[in-house]
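In line with agreed milestones, the collection of sequences with tokenised folds has grown. One record among many is set out beneath this paragraph:
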Amino acid sequence: MAKKLYVGNLSYSTTTDSLKAAFAQAGEVSDAIVMTDKMSGRSRGFGFVTMPNDDDAQKAIDMFDGKDLDGRAVKVNEAKPLDPNNRPQRSGGFRRDSMSF
């Protein structure tokens, strides 16, 4: 079964292609993405790598966690599934119905 890995503390110069190429050293990479800011297009400093083989995914964790990638010591672990009930709520400011006078 495929494993999705979280890769944190990425250099802002790391691209999706360079992330995929780096993790390909540990085994087959089916997908890689560096998360970017919607407004500026700049890297948010983390990304995800999906590897179809569990052994290769573990090898990638062992190979890269705490190691230097593009000048930064990256954090690599198995990604946690997104819990829709635990998403942070964004607020545009005060809500009229929650204000008391």
